[in-house]
Amino acid sequence: MLASLLVSVTVLFVVLRVLGNPVYSLISIGASQADIDALSARLGMDQPIYVQFGNYLAQLARFDLGNSITSHLPVAPELLHRLNVTLPLTLISFVLSVVIALPGGFFAGWKSGTWYGTAFSALTQLGVAIPVFWVGILLIRTVSLQWGILPAGGFPSAGWGTPGEALQSLALPVLTIAIVSGSDLARYVRSATLDVLGQNYLTMARSMGQSFPQAILRHGLRNGIVPVISILAIQLATTFVGAVLIETVFALPGLGGLLLAGIKEQDFTTVQGVLLFSTVMVLVLGFLADLAQRLLDPRLRDSVSGNRRARAAA
Fold first, then answer.
1. Taking Cα atoms as reference points, which of 227, 222, 133 lies closest to residue 173?
2. Of 20, 153, 162, 310, which one has the greatest count of Cβ atoms within 10 A?
3. What does each C-alpha distance from 109 to 117, 181, 191, 254 come to in angstroms?
4. DSSP state, 144?
């Protein structure tokens, strides 16, 4: 995880500087070369890139994301403030997608040979194929503009001080993300269900007198949930990315707006902070998913222990 994080930080740092120089976005038209050099020195952009990278790593070691190039304010407090919108949006959307996908995917796998199981699978394929921002625009047009049920966007100025209004403003974004994420997750649950239903141990349990629900709960669930655990971690990270993207559609003051403003203003520090936070979140979730898989599946622990014993013997 740490090696992946170092590679990600390196690639992110280099790519952003290859894309452009923030000095030219901040300097006024007709500025002299002396003014450009002075601003480059103030921002530290006059130093070699390896020196800039070393300074950036030293900042990260102190948990310092630096100051915004345009506002000169620390990035970390602003990022944490924006999480008040992005984090609830991500978690609520993820929970709703899981509530939709787990029973729906199991039903589609269990009834795969019927027309309604096939119809559900077709709906999930359609949900995966539709871009998340297009779903958001469609919901705004129908649910908000035509039916007038929910607000089309924005967030209350009082924030979570008015929880009813805050939840109402997140309703359409949550539904948008849950439709797409739930469709994707349901496909994996269906695949895991089909794999479990075809195993001999399930047939043996049924032949020994256990009912179908008993066999699924006692034997199928633990084996089928192992591959789904890793998918859940990836899905949570994907939901977070979808939340950042969909915030711009619904004009929500979360990380999406902060990232978009940083891109427009070529504010490398802000863009780095948002993307680095996203990267860390994905890596940590993947690491936790690996740990959960080893706790649930003894075969994975045995394989690791066996490899260690083999290396020790060699």
1. 133
2. 153
3. 7, 18, 7, 37
4. I
pLDDT (0 to 100) of residue 195? 76
Angle at 89 between CA 73 and CA 159, to 5 degrees: 60
CATH number at 82-298: 1.10.3720.10
Quote the CA–CA distance of 43 and 67 in Å, as a whole number.
10
CA separation for the pair 41, 300 (Å, rounded): 53
- Dig out the tokens for 204 from the structure: 């043996």
Task: Answer yes or no: pTM beyond 0.70.
Answer: yes
Output 53-59 pairs: Cβ under 8 A, ≥24 positions apart.
53/10, 53/13, 53/14, 56/9, 56/13, 56/272, 57/9
**C-alpha 33 chain-centroid distance:** 43
CB-based contacts of 53, cutoff 8 Å, min separation 6:
10, 13, 14
Residue 67, classed as helix, strand or coil, is: strand
Residue 10: partners with Cβ closer than 8 Å, 6 or more residues away: 53
Kindly tell me if the per-residue pLDDT of 21 is higher than 80. Answer: no
Task: Give strand ranges (E) for the chain.
Answer: none
Of residues 36 and 56, the one with the higher pLDDT is: 56
Q: What is the pLDDT confidence band of residue 125, given thresholds at 50, 70 and 90? A: confident
pLDDT in the model for residue 307 = 56
Q: What are the two backbone dihedrals, phi and then psi, of residue 67, each rounded to the nearest 5 degrees?
A: -105, 150
List Cα–Cα distances, 175 to 105, 139, 183, 187, 192, in angstroms. Answer: 18, 9, 12, 18, 25
Q: What is the mean pLDDT of residues 251-257?
A: 87
- The residue behind tokens 């269900």 is 193
